[in-house]
Amino acid sequence: MYLVVIGWMYVVLMMSVAEATNTTGSVLGAIVTFFLYGLLPVILVVYLMRTPARRKEIKAREAAEHQAQMARLAANAEPEATPSIDPDAGGHATGAAEDGGVAPVRKEV
Q1: How far apart are CA 68 and CA 103, in angstroms?
Q2: How far apart (Å, rounded) are the C-alpha atoms in residues 76 and 96?
Q3: Global confidence as pTM
Q4: CA nearest to 81, candidates 94, 67, 72, 65
Q5: How far apart are CA 16 and CA 37, in angstroms?
Q6: Residue 94: left if φ>0, alpha if ψ -120 to 50, beta else—which one?
Q7: Mean pLDDT along residues 62-68
């Protein structure tokens, strides 16, 4: 994949050089050519092509953390309470609304 990226960047660099050295071209045109035809599309393509690898790395890291947590729990006779990320994962019932907590709706006189 990186070989294609290197090849495309070479082609775009040569396009930019041709734009800058042409009698009707300009350096600003060469810079715009380099960024719009080369750098921005290559960054986007590399980011999209690396998505599966990033997902795999995240899943491997989560699995390693889960195994480490299970090993800690197995080593301790009394497991320690781990804080929950999800606020509703505590297993407790939600609290009822307090009396007078909500202002009554009245009609204007």
Answers
A1: 50
A2: 37
A3: 0.53
A4: 72
A5: 9
A6: beta
A7: 93
